[in-house]
Design brief:
The complex is a heterodimer of chains A (about 240) and B (about 300). With about 240 residues, chain A is of the alpha+beta class. Chain A has 6 helices and 13 strands. Chain A has 2 domains: about 190 residues, Immunoglobulin-like (Sandwich), CATH 2.60.40.1930; about 30 residues, no CATH class. In chain A, the strands form 3 sheets. Chain A has a 6-stranded mixed sheet. A 4-stranded antiparallel sheet of chain A has the order 1-3-11-10, with no helix packed on it. The longest helix of chain A is centred in the last third of the chain and has 25 residues. Chain B has a two-stranded antiparallel sheet. The radius of gyration of chain B is 19 Å and the shape is globular. Classes of the chains: A alpha+beta (about 240), B mainly alpha (about 300).
């Protein structure tokens, strides 16, 4: 009994010190640039820890409202029925870990820290029953997974000599633009002992970016130019083929 | 060769888009139609968001119809007076249509309405084409069969605001072409089509215009109405993708020239039966998406939808 007490006392002393475990991380690129030839990309995430432990990485995309619709069959035809809006749902969520999550920490801790696809915070102002909201919530996650925007399963993190770790972060071609938060957690004996966050901008570059900006900021001029190009192209085609 | 489409926010194969443009252009050149009613569903099938498909297709139809409109203009096959009345209707209709489109988008029903409109119009037009051309094909083989009357008088000819359309040799109420224009304008905005497949039969059977000026006048109206739709979609919904439109235009202008040459060698009725069957096939494909049990009954709303 005395031994157990002293062990617990020792833990109390060690944990606050351990909380400040140092972690360093970096990415193979400091941004994701969506250019005209963009077909999705993969970033390499790497870092170093002090001593042995488990590593968990989360990548959370920009948050915005997401509407989930339910189709209903009316007279044999599928139409859009009810919908629920989830406030500030992350556009992208990826999780990577050095071991299966349940071996790293208890469900309570994971829930509290919002680690894991099932733990993503999705709030809604809907008055509907919990079961209904849960069905819509699952549907949101399922749809996002299908578009490869939420991670399908826990991807692997390689740890080298309890010092270095690395992992890859995949981005599909349809990756939404905005600021992404990348957080690395260090767990020891089921407890989080260190954490480091960095942000990653995902943005359109080049012609595509300019066109998008132009279409949204100077819509009337964009429309006029779209018409002018079409008129010119059609007229030119007529002239060329008449000569030929 | 993948290319990122900045407005659709997705990447697609450029060769596929050029090929699609070429194929639809070939059919439109062969049959003398705009091709929007085939292109928009095809774009949706390959994953382009329906709103972007509709907005972009309107832009492509501008390019597809302008060279034809100019050619008919030079040959004097455009009834300008009739064209202007149709055009006024078209402006009213397309502006109403964009308003309706934006509203439907905000309540999450736009994809459904686009699909239903396609099934409805392609179904009706396809059946009419097959039946009509089938009949004239039979008549061509059996010349003894009675001919239809050229011109029938109905209550439509009793409407007020009569106008003389010299080029079409008509004296009819201006409300008729105005109404046709409004209707086609709404279709252009919601379905992303020129509307020639509705306007041409309406001009022949409803207004009684001579076939020599029908195509030119219809193209004249389509150029301006689809330009209006392009402009309004750009301003209201930001759903016109210039990159996508250009790829389709390049494919379709080449395809149209080849198609026109092939079409000239075929017989009119046979060509119309073939087009009718293609229209019905597209109709069936769109209808299938409405009745088939979806992979997932839950879906995520378009960005920007309420």
């Amino acid at each position: 009994m005395a031994r157990l007490l002293s062990f617990l006392l020792a833990l109390l002393v060690i944990i606050p010190a351990a909380k400040s475990q140092r972690l360093a991380l970096d990415l193979s690129n400091d941004e994701v640039a969506i250019s005209t030839g963009f077909t999705g990309t993969e970033l390499l995430l790497f870092g170093a820890t002090e001593g042995h432990g488990d590593i968990v990485v989360t990548v959370v995309g920009p948050r915005s409202d997401e509407v989930v619709w339910r189709k209903e069959r009316v007279a044999g035809i599928w139409v859009s029925g009810d919908s629920i809006t989830f406030k500030s749902a992350p556009a992208y969520y990826l999780i990577a870990a050095s071991r299966p999550l349940q071996e790293i920490a208890s469900p309570e801790i994971l829930h509290q820290m919002q680690i894991g696809v099932a733990e993503i915070e999705l709030s809604t102002g809907s008055q509907r029953s919990d079961a209904e909201v849960a069905a819509y919530r699952e549907a949101l996650i399922r749809n996002k997974k299908r578009r490869r925007l939420y991670s399908q399963d826990i991807s692997n993190i390689k740890i080298v000599r309890d010092l270095l770790f690395r992992s890859t972060i995949p981005f599909p071609a349809s990756v939404p633009t905005g600021e992404y938060q990348i957080t690395v957690y260090l767990f020891k004996n089921g407890e989080p002992v260190g954490q480091q966050t960095t942000s990653l901008p995902v943005r359109k570059v080049g012609l595509g970016a300019q066109l998008y900006k132009f279409a949204h900021q100077q819509a009337p001029l964009y429309g006029a130019i779209a018409i002018a190009i079409a008129l010119l192209a059609g007229w030119l085609a007529g002239v060329i083929f008449r000569r030929a | 060769m993948q290319i990122y489409l900045p407005i659709a926010e997705m990447s697609l194969n450029a060769i596929l888009l050029l090929g699609l443009g070429g194929m639809v252009g070939f059919l439109s050149g062969m049959f003398g139609v705009g091709g929007g009613f085939l292109m928009t569903p095809l774009l949706i099938f390959i994953g382009v968001p329906p709103a972007v498909a509709v907005g972009t297709e309107a832009n492509q139809v501008v390019a597809a119809s302008v060279s034809g409109a100019l050619a008919h203009w030079r040959r004097g096959n455009v009834d300008i007076r009739m064209g202007v009345v149709l055009l006024i209707g078209g402006f009213i209709g397309s502006t109403l249509g964009i308003w309706l489109f934006t509203f439907l988008r905000s309540i999450g029903q736009i994809d459904f309405v686009i699909s239903v409109s396609y099934v409805l119009f392609l179904g009706i037009i396809g059946v009419l084409m097959v039946v009509e051309s089938g009949r004239s094909w039979l008549r061509a083989r059996n010349p003894a069969a009675p001919r239809r009357k050229l011109h029938k008088h109905t209550w439509l000819h009793g409407l007020p605001f009569k106008m003389r359309f010299r080029r079409s040799k008509l004296y009819i109420s201006a409300l008729l072409p105005l109404g046709v224009g409004v209707f086609v304008g709404i279709l252009a905005a919601i379905m992303g089509v020129g509307g020639g497949f509705v306007m041409v039969p309406a001009m022949i059977y409803l207004l009684g215009m001579p076939t020599s000026v029908v195509v030119g006048t219809s193209l004249f109206q389509i150029v301006f109405v689809t330009a209006n739709v392009t402009f309004l979609q750009s301003v209201t919904n930001q759903t016109v993708d210039i990159v996508l439109a250009m790829l389709l235009v390049v494919g379709s202008v080449i395809g149209a020239q080849i198609g026109a040459r092939v079409g000239a060698k075929l017989r009119g009725e046979e060509v119309r039966i073939a087009l009718g069957l293609i229209v019905l096939a597209v109709c069936a494909r769109v209808a299938w998406t409405l009745v088939a049990t979806p992979e997932d009954v839950y879906f995520l709303g378009q960005p920007g939808a309420g």
